[in-house]
Amino acid sequence: MWAGIVRGDCAQAHNTGTVRISASTPVAVHIFPLILARMRQVLPDIQVELVARKIGYAASKDLFALRTDDLIVQWEAVRAGLGIGFVANYLARSDADIVQALPDVLRIAPLPMWLVVHREIRTSRLIRAVVDVLAGALPGAI
Fold first, then answer.
1. Which domain holds residue 37?
2. Which ranges carry the LysR substrate-binding domain (predicted)?
């Protein structure tokens, strides 16, 4: 899973400024709001720009009765009973009516999540503070 790129405009002496976080749409919708709300309590002078990105893979369209390039649409289609789909565990756990299909046959290894910081701003106290909060919170959220 791809978490994002962290960029920032900063006042290095204090943890103040703006940080842009790019994330896949499901991560931006289902994981980051709670983490960012907690981060706001610890780092109140940091403003966050959360940018959701569509990330997907090509597949032959005749294999599917419903096709979408939006993971949130896919999730809602699964929840509506239109069929099965691949969803992240953090989404599946959010709905008690979702049942894992073929748990003993189909095992998918966890996908990695990266926090990426531009070399030029890696030493910024602002960026370091945000990365530390995200690195501490994301493993428990996914």
1. 4-141
2. 66-137
Taking alpha carbons only, the member of 85, 113, 107 closest to residue 28 is 113
What the block records as the tokens of 91 is 């989404």
Would you call 69 helix, strand, or coil by DSSP? coil
Q: What sign does the CA torsion over 43, 40, 111, 104 have?
A: positive
Return the exposure string of 62-84: e unless at least 16 CB atoms fall within 10 Å of the residue's CB, then b: eeeeeeeeebbebbebbeeeeee
Q: Where are the alpha helices (DSSP H) in the chain?
A: 25-30, 32-42, 71-79, 89-92, 125-141
Predicted TM-score of the model (pTM): 0.53
Q: Is the pLDDT of residue 82 over 50?
A: yes
8 Å CB contact between 91 and 75: yes
Whether 18 contacts 49, CB under 8 Å? yes
Chain segment 25-35, per-residue pLDDT in tens? 888 888 899 99
Work out how many domains the chain is built from and give that number: 1
Instruction: Return the closest-CA partner of residue 27 out of 130, 140, 138, 126.
Output: 138
